[in-house]
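User: tokens in, sequence out, please.
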């Protein structure tokens, strides 16, 4: 990949709201049980934003930690990207709300909509702005309050999703710094968009009593189809990233995939011929947090001292759209 400069990950942070929805809580809402959910998804609990918390509040907490980790202040930022499908409101963007709350300068700030691939899309955009020399310090956040988009009468979806935010500071690297973002590869297949949708509230199906009565303000998913596509696409993304960089899979220290379903991730590890022990799993604690999932899984693994500076990390994402992508980086 071309460009004058390279990007590095200068700091990371994450935030999980205090509230928790356990499988036992869900047992009380729909016909399901703890054992089924663990066996089929690997998820044991998900975090839930408090009634006063919106997406930007979660993003703020994660961003403050990432800035501190990078040794920067909000005044140092040149760009803010918030990847989300559950922003505070349709407009203004959650990134603008966050910019003001952080006390950043009047810098460019925008939301990015790529569902569960949102964070790798955001990283790739940030990387391009660094490579051209336009910006030096960029805040990329994945933040979601998904429990407000989920129907707690739909047992196929309500078991999966949770709330969280994860943030990275992406900065211009020194010329001789070996720890940089090496590549990003992004994809979308709009023809499969109907596998995972939130139909109500847009210009095609504006809010009405009918939308509310029919539950079209909640996510709708064809789980089995999503599952198959996720395994295939994530595996392809992993192969693509390694081939483009002439890297062998044994050289990768950690695979940090989108935390969708433990069986999806185990299948990807099998098809990618990658040891399961080197795959980061956090979904037992968080569920699927869409755009927040990769930066949260990453940050938790940094806190646990699994992921360390200098290691080679492969991020792979998949989501509604259908979108997908990878980022290969040396941390
Ligand atoms: C949703 C998901 C967990 C369902 O698991 P599954 O093993 O595929 O289950 P199936 O859809 O084959 O359904 C098997 C049975 O379990 C039932 N079932 C579905 N959800 C259930 C639940 N929460 N509890 C108990 N039974 C459930 C189904 O109704 C079906 O019953 P039937 O055989 O009587 O029709 C799984 O398909 C999945 O995780 N898909 C990917 C979703 C995803 O990652 N989305 C986000 C992408 S970014």
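Assistant: Sequence out:
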């Amino acid at each position: 990949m071309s460009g004058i400069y390279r990007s590095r990950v200068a700091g990371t942070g994450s935030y999980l709201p205090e509230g928790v929805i356990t499988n036992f809580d869900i047992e009380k809402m729909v016909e399901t049980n703890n054992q089924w959910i663990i066996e089929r998804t690997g998820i044991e609990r998900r975090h839930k934003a408090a009634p006063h918390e919106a997406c930007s509040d979660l993003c703020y907490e994660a961003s403050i930690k990432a800035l501190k980790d990078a040794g920067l202040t909000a005044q140092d930022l040149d760009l803010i990207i918030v990847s989300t499908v559950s922003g505070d409101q349709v407009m203004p963007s959650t990134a603008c709300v966050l910019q003001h709350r952080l006390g950043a300068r009047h810098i460019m700030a925008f939301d990015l909509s790529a569902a569960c691939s949102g964070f790798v899309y955001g990283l790739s955009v940030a990387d391009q702005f660094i490579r051209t020399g336009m910006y030096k310090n960029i805040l990329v956040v994945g933040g979601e309050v998904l429990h407000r988009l989920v129907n707690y009468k739909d047992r196929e979806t309500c078991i999966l999703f949770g709330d969280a935010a994860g943030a990275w500071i992406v900065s211009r690297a020194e010329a001789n710094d070996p720890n940089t973002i090496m590549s990003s590869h992004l994809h979308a297949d709009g023809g499969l968009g109907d596998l995972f949708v939130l139909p109500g509230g847009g210009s095609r199906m504006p809010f009405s009593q009918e939308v509310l009565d029919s539950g079209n303000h909640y996510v709708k998913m064809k789980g089995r189809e999503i599952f198959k596509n996720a395994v295939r696409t994530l595996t392809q993304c992993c192969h693509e990233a390694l081939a483009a960089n002439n890297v062998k899979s044994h050289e990768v220290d950690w695979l940090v995939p989108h935390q969708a379903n433990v069986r999806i991730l185990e299948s990807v590890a099998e098809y990618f011929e990658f040891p399961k022990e080197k795959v980061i799993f956090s979904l037992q604690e968080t569920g699927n947090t869409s755009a927040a999932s990769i930066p949260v899984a990453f940050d938790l693994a940094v806190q646990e001292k699994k992921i360390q500076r200098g290691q080679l990390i492969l991020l792979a994402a998949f989501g509604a759209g259908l979108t997908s992508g990878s980022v290969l980086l040396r941390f």
